[in-house]
Amino acid sequence: MNTIDNLQRTILKCLAVSSGKLDEYTLFKRSRVGFADFSKAYRKLKDKKIIREVDNFVFITADGAGEAKKILSLLQSKEKPWRQIPKEYIGEIISGNSQYVPSIKLLDKTTFKF
Amino acid sequence: MVGDEYLTVSISKKSFRVLIGLTKKQPWLEERMDALVQLIYKDCSSQEQKDLILELLYRFEYMSSKKFNDVLNTMAEEIVTDPDLEDETTQLVAMAADSSADSSQYILYALKVIFQKLGWEKYKQTNNFGRAYKSYKNRNNFKNLVLIDEFVGSGKTVLSRVKEIRRVFDGNGISDYSIRVRCLVSAESGVKAIADEGIDFMTQIILKKGISGYQTWCVVKNQINLMLSLESILKKEYGGHSLPSLGYGGVESLYCRESGNTPNSVFPIFWWPAYSDESKRSTVLIRAMGDA
Fold first, then answer.
1. Contact call for residues B4 and B41 (beta carbons, < 8 A)
2. N or C terminus of chain B with fewer C-beta within 10 Å?
């Protein structure tokens, strides 16, 4: 079972965007996770050999690089499927010079002199 | 105040280093963060007290369920391969004396399956030491008594059990019986106390005294004084029991099993539930105070 939960993903993401190397404390601060949760997720990541720690510095392992890549590609992906508007909500696009009936209330009084 | 650091997001680098070093070695503390922070940053009133607490926590023997299982299996194997013990004549006796639940009974139950796997079926299980004679009398086969317990601290309990069993058996004219004591974890002082009485005793893990077993005598003197001054913030008496300073029998234990009841020979600063002003303590270890 090598599923990586959200807390672990958060921490791995912080590490991944920092060129895969970070001081433990900095990683903790940047992840913005509470201490107990950080300690747990941090340990699990180490046990799964996704990250390794040397002298208070944390590195992503070769095995962990695959997971990190998945996360980074999600971040850099141009596609934002959640931003795509369904057809039925898109209104009619009016071209620049087409005629339309203005609302007098919204017109500037001095420019249009009325 | 330093203790409040944890409650907001900002823990200083120094505190972080201390806490992460501790949770790396003792992951079980992650579940007791509030109590840990209180112990280190509020209960301790000097850096030396803090250093002592950290040193002791780092040294703690916290038995995980997995390790418990491994150690239990080894204990069972040693019993089964004892050249002078056989299935048909052995009686496994829990150290328990009264009607409340005891970890020796928990162990006895856990051993059922293990013994079956090891090929023993005919031995007798007795879940209360007071019934050992009755079990023997019912069928004179079960004459080799193996007293079982999870943890031995000062050894006082073991000695009194053995003394009582001998009194009953000898008093009834029985001479053909043997007593062995087997446990998972024992404090060094307990091992010595039991060996001094010439009792056949084996344990899987031996623990030295938490302070006295690790330092030179002058450091010990200083650290014991620090611990005593720490204990002065605790209520002297709780539920009819008086505070067992430095752990019951002065054993200075640093042991607890995952999901188990904390032994009273552990330094009370880690589990005593009340301050001298009667207010409640949130503690890193928990002990059922019904029979403290």
1. no
2. N
Q: Is B12 helix (H, G, I), strand (E, B) or coil?
A: coil
**How many whole angstroms separate alpha carbon B290 and alpha carbon A16?**
51
- Residue of chain A whose alpha carbon sits nearest to that of B7: A34
Instruction: Name the residue with tokens 């188990």.
Output: B260
What would the pLDDT profile of B17-75 be if each residue is shown by its tens digit? 999 999 999 999 999 999 999 999 999 999 999 999 999 999 999 999 999 999 999 99
Nearest to A65 by CA among A4, A20, A31, A9: A20
Note the pTM of the prediction, 2 decimals: 0.83
Answer whether A43 sits within 8 Å of B16, measured CB to CB: no
* Cβ separation B16–A24 shorter than 8 A: yes
Conformational region of residue B123, where left means phi above 0, alpha means psi within -120 to 50, and beta covers everything else: beta
Helix axes B13-25, A35-47, angle to 10 degrees: 50
Q: What residues in B contact A35, CB-CB < 8 Å?
A: 6, 11, 16, 19, 33
Report chain B residues whose CB lies below 8 A from the CB of A32: 9
The question of ipTM being above 0.85 is answered as no
**At B287, which amino acid appears?**
R
Single out the residue of B28, B32, B12 nearest to residue B284, CA to CA: B32
Q: Which residues of A fall within a CB distance of 8 Å from B30? A: 36, 39-40
Cβ neighbors of B224 (< 8 A, separation 6 or more) are B211, B212, B246
Q: Give the burial class of A13: count Cβ atoms within 10 A of its Cβ; 0-12 exposed, 13-18 middle, 19 or more buried.
A: middle
Q: B110 and chain A: CB distance < 8 Å anywhere?
A: no
